[in-house]
Amino acid sequence: MSRSLKKGPFVDTPLLEKIETMNRGGEKKVVKTWSRRSTIVPEMVGHTLAVHNGKKFVPVYVTENMVGHKLGEFAPTRGFRGHTTKEKAEKIAAAAAPAAGAGAAAPKPAGGSAS
Fold first, then answer.
1. pLDDT score of 82
2. Cβ-proximal residues to 3 (8 Å cutoff; 6+ apart), any chain
3. What confidence tens digit (pLDDT) does each residue in 51-61 have?
4. Full 3-state SS string of 74-102
């Protein structure tokens, strides 16, 4: 469900103030933010925001196409490494099989034999 048009887009107040002061001064520096829920507004276009993804800050350069989206959309929290292929799965299984077989060998009795 989207936010009411009457209220307008949500932008964290300290973040918006930092962007506005940079626009007035003509500065371009990276602004760190934890506010993933903030909506990107036209004032942010051309700035680089370091958005926290839970582990580190991901630099996000804001373009015109991003206006209306949330900051968190551009800083993924989970890294998708791809699905495993059949060859990869076989290699992993082959590497695990010898290691499991070596540890499963029965230990030899320590002592003299009865024969």
1. 82
2. 9, 10
3. 999 999 999 99
4. HCCCCCCCCCCCHHHHHHHHHHHHHHHHH
